[in-house]
Amino acid sequence: MANKTIGGCVRTPYPDGRKASTVTVFAFAGSWLPDDWCAQPPFGETKMGTCNFPSLKSLGDDGVALVNGSFLRRFNAIHSSLAKKVKKVIAKKKQVVFTGYSSGAPVAILATLYLLEKSEPNQSHPTASLLDPPSSVIGSSVMLSSGRNGPTTSFIFVMRNASMVANYDACNFMGCRIPTLETLRNFIELSPYRPFGTYIFYSGSGKLVVVRNPNAELQKSLGKQNVVYLDHLEELPVSSDGSPATVNTTLNDLGLSTQAMLCLQATGELEKLKSRNQDKIINDYKQKIEGELRKLSKYKEKAETCGLGYYDSFKLQEKEYGFQANVSRLVLAGYWDEMMEMLKAYKLPDEFEKSHDCIRLGTDYRRTVEPLDIANFYRHAKDEETGFYVKKGTRPKRYRYIQNWLEHAEKKPSGSRSESCFWAEVEDLRIKTRSNGSSPKIKQKVLQLGQNLIKWIDDESLGKDVLLENSTFVKWWKPLPPEYKSEPKSSRVMKLIHEKD
């Protein structure tokens, strides 16, 4: 069907919705135009627009998925008119299928992702059938992980082996390194594109072979209905001898080489490694983290009884038990930094960052420990060397990652859950109100801090010990000139301070 469009219009989809059918197919044509294939830099990658594709980003560092710029440009040229046509089809309760030939295939992928982004929760999702070899690897690894965390969809590919990327990734999966490939990587840029979605292959005997792990597609080439699911890749034999009858027949139909089988096994082993790492965190790290957090909770209670509060007590380090609190802070940083390294190396399941238990544990850690990190930062006057704590490159990544998890889970805008940085804002504004006078910009920041303080105390994400008479915040806030306290929220702050007294 995609071929029907080749001789016709190249830039608009070809809809095929027969009256008796419950399915409408949108077919996208290939193109011979250079601009529809080539874009700069070498691999033509560009960032996905977060307006049309808000879900295609990594949860931790907000890294946006990359896609071939020419394919994205072609999709953007038709997406408004396409959206109207698809909306009419969905209104008729029909299933939508996207397909494409040659350079039309990646446009079909983008159309599917766009529709999934805009679909209502109870709306049936489209299936994208993509019928061209090079088009299945149009996006970066961020697209793979965010796709797994999004709505389920099927992409049907017939593809060829992407040798350099395939061999390099296969070596990573198998835990080995080839010196030649490592050397080449230093001066040859590898393609950023990776496959994603569920792959369905047609074997010569008429079977459908389903692979739900898209990493496997980097390592194998397949030939051409019964359905066989190759889910437990690590259990596949190196040869087809001795495997269960159905799988044995399927492997023979696909004609996989020994090297291809090894690569499939490596992909499966990688998934097992991710699961083992997650189990290690749940069964080992979780208990240890909670134990250290309990110690810090007791430290917080002691600090409050002394009238200083959690932050100021740690910053001054006048009590002996502050040393033990610092030990707990460093131990916890070690656990979370190790987890962050696992995430960046893709050694944890994609679902890890969306786990309710993980988000809860991370949020407890961030709210408990980051104030201590900030206290240590300003105690040693590190702001004189690096500037404001919250600026990029200064605040530890572990806190930014964990904050992003919570904001994503609550569907809140980026930066809205920054209560653990309250003391950094206070320290920064203390300096600026002394040096910059009452500039409108500084005044607005002070007013915003007061509003945030009320909100965070009300939802209990910030402790009331910040309102103690001898706290850094109260000592700074009380003497502020009236122009900083003109908003109604400011009077509420003063009322809370008096109540705490």
TrEMBL record:
Keywords: Cytoplasm, Hydrolase, Nucleus, Plant defense
Localization of this protein: Cytoplasm; Nucleus
GO CC annotations on file: cytoplasm; nucleus
Domain Fungal lipase-type, chain residue ranges per copy: 25-125
Any GO BP annotation: lipid metabolic process
Keyword Cytoplasm attributed: yes
Residue stretches making up the EDS1 EP domain: 295-479
Domain of life: Eukaryota
The keyword NADP belongs to this UniProt entry's keyword annotation: no
Main localisation: cytoplasm
Annotated InterPro entries: AB_hydrolase_fold (IPR029058), EDS1-like (IPR044214), EDS1_EP (IPR041266), Fungal_lipase-type (IPR002921)
Single GO term (MF): hydrolase activity
UniProt name for this protein: Protein EDS1
Gene: EDS1_1
